[in-house]
Amino acid sequence: MLCYQRSFIVVLTILAFFTIGSFGIKCYQCSSDSDPEGVDNCGTYSKFDKERNVPVECTSDDSKTPGTFCVKLTQQSPRGFIWDGRWKKVIRRCASVASTGVTGVCNWGVYDNGVYWQECSCSNDLCNSAANLNLSFVAILAIFATFLFLR
C-alpha cells in the first residue's frame, strides 16, 4: 500500500511539471543599455517599477529571447573603474537555458577584468522583478515528493 502512495506522489509531481511547463510564462523584459539618458526603466539604480514595464509572454513574438523561465542579469564595475565611480547594468528577460542547469537560484562571479556579475533565474510569472529571486512552488513540491519517495 505504501509503495502505491509513493508511486502516486511521483506521478502527480511529474504531471505537475508537464502541466505547468505547457503554459507560457510571463517575464519582464528590459535592459539598462536601452534606457534613454537619465532614465532608469530597468531598475538599475532605483526600485524596479512594475507599472512602467509591460510583461511579455515568453513564447510569443514579443519576447526578444524565447524561453520557459525568467532571468535577471546584473553586472557592476569594480570601484574606481571609471573616474566618477562604478557603473551598473541590469537585464531582465526570458531564457531557455540556465548556466547552472536549474532555476530558482542565483549564480555570481567576477570576470577577469574585475566586473562583478550575477545571474538569477526563476520559473514563476513576473518573478524577475524582484531583487532576490525565490524557489518556485513546483520546485518545492518536487523536492518534497522526492524526499517522500526516497524515505
From TrEMBL:
Which residues, by range, are in coiled-coil regions? none
Membrane spanning stretches? 130-150
How does the UniProt record describe the way this protein sits in the membrane?
A: Lipid-anchor; GPI-anchor
InterPro entries named among the record's database cross-references: QVR-like, Sleep_regulator
- Origin: domain of life: Eukaryota
Keywords of the record, alphabetical order, are: Glycoprotein, GPI-anchor, Lipoprotein, Membrane, Signal, Transmembrane, Transmembrane helix
Give the UniProt entry's GO cellular component terms. side of membrane
Write the signal peptide boundaries: 1-24
Pfam families xrefs: QVR
**GO biological process entries:** regulation of synaptic transmission, cholinergic; sleep
Is Metal-binding one of the keywords UniProt gives this record? no
Q: Does the keyword Signal apply?
A: yes
Cellular localization per UniProt: Membrane
The molecule here is called: Protein sleepless
Q: Per the UniProt entry, what species is this protein from, by scientific name?
A: Nasonia vitripennis (Parasitic wasp)
